[in-house]
Amino acid sequence: MPNSQRPLLNSHQNQRFAIPGTGGGISPPGNVYGRPAQPSYQQPPPAYTNNGPAAKNGAALRTVPISALNPYQRTWTIKARVSAKSQVKHYNNARGPGKLFNFDLRDAHGGEIRAVCFNTQLDQFYDLIEVDKVYLISRGSLKPANKQFNHLNNDYEVSLDAATTIEVCSDDDSSIPRQQFDFRQISEIANMDKDTMVDLLGVVTSVSPSSPFTRKDGVETQKRVLQLRDMSGCSVEITFWGGFCNAEGQQLQSLCDSGSNPVLALRSVRVGEFKGRNVSTIGSSFLKINPDFPAAESLRQWYITEGKNAACTSLSMGGSGMGRTDDRKTVEQIKAENLGRSEKPDWITVKGAISHISTDNFCYPACTTEVNGTRCNKKVTNNGDGMWQCDKCEQSTPNCEYRYMLQCQIQDYTGTSYATAFHDAGKDIIGLPAQDLYSIKHEDQDDEKFADIIQKVRFELFLFKLKVKEEVFNDEPRVKCYIVNAQKLEDTSKESRFLLGPIDSLLVDDGLGPTPGVSGAAAVNTGFTSNTGTYSTNMSGRSYLLQVSSRQRQCQLGSVLQMQSAWALLQRLPRAGG
């Protein structure tokens, strides 16, 4: 690679470059069937197509640049490298069920285009197409590209048909660039619009196991979540879908489990705004683990020497960084601190309970149409003929999926506030899918069972992660709270450690010093004195006594609800010397 094209070592951001070829790799097959190249005097096997060979008498094919393709020309041949390949997608339309996949092509002139294969052509070409290999492709129909789902720099895409010829090139043409990236800093994602396509380079700090996920159309897929951070001081949650969870996802998890934090390059991933900011793979995304270009090495060295222990802000509600996820507030503070009144929403965590749930309209029928891995989920209406009409998709489908839209009243010791919980958060609260709860109420008409399910939810403690934002209704601004995550307060040890934070700050204010273990010490040793005796806990072999001699001091230690939680823990501890 020319030096002018290499990114600077001190920053990988906003650089555009290609991954260099790797030496010592396995050469591509000599022909489309993967057999050794035949001598020139033997008749070569037929090309991988329905029609005749791509060239006659061994003569070299005349190829045209991708940029020269147009809908009025049917006979052409391009030589291009596959830069991305999607998974097989299934669909239903007026003509019945079908399937498709697509792959992106790039040639030596910098042109790029997407090729789409349906049904028969999918069966014919899917196993032949591999990312990074070079192909000769002849004939196909050019159609306008749907820019909502096709981000390539081309107004057309090519639909392969019965006349199409695809042949693997026996030599890897070095004039055709490999994968190219246009990396952006993770911190920039905070200001990007939803559905923006972006390239990222970061260090993987954690990977969750792959888990099954049932789509609304009943199709089961896989989901895997990881955390990615870079030198901008921010991290973001990355969600792998489908096939990305297997080979690449398992490799990343194995590396992280072994104590290694791999560098990951991602091309063409989509920005979302669910639970803060997040990024998801799509069918044509491309991943490169531990790439060998200079920017990746620079990032790796930064993480080893300083980045691993540097402060990091998570842009995602589910992130593990020291970001807005840990901003614990009370219900009263939402109003007192004018949360949600700025241009961007506030993301906070509130510990409280649900005191009321509106059961009149707790769910809605949602559109199940899925395009490029993204489900519509907008409300549909029953046409009266068994079909459900979606105004956004402008089409009718025979099925819908009921999704939560819970109107709740959350309460803590400072007051109450109304909040809305959509599908995932609603499922966290109720413990059942919306479809099941709808069936109990409206199909089974089991009012007693329905009431029992709702009653069990009331006044159970949760950690609510809220999105607080101002919205305008009838020209009147109002602050709305949305529950993006609801976690049952079952881990008392974790919550107790959190409660030690305010206690520690009081000790520092009084000059008593921090509680061991809370501010970086190796262990926590806390003891409490009340009017009825001394209670202690020994978490590292010795006791640490804190005198709490009056009701006034108890109030200083924190809120009433926090003290109740701490006191419940203390009541279960053995008395000192007893």
Automatic annotation (TrEMBL):
One matching Pfam family is REPA_OB_2
Question: Is Metal-binding tagged as a keyword?
Answer: yes
- Please provide the Gene Ontology terms (biological process) for this protein: DNA replication; double-strand break repair via homologous recombination; meiotic cell cycle; nucleotide-excision repair; telomere maintenance via telomerase
Comp. bias intervals (Polar residues):
1-16
Per its record, what are the GO molecular function terms?
damaged DNA binding; single-stranded telomeric DNA binding; zinc ion binding
The function of this protein is: Component of the replication protein A complex (RPA) required for DNA recombination, repair and replication. The activity of RPA is mediated by single-stranded DNA binding and protein interactions. Probably involved in repair of double-strand DNA breaks (DSBs) induced by genotoxic stresses.
The protein's name is Replication protein A subunit
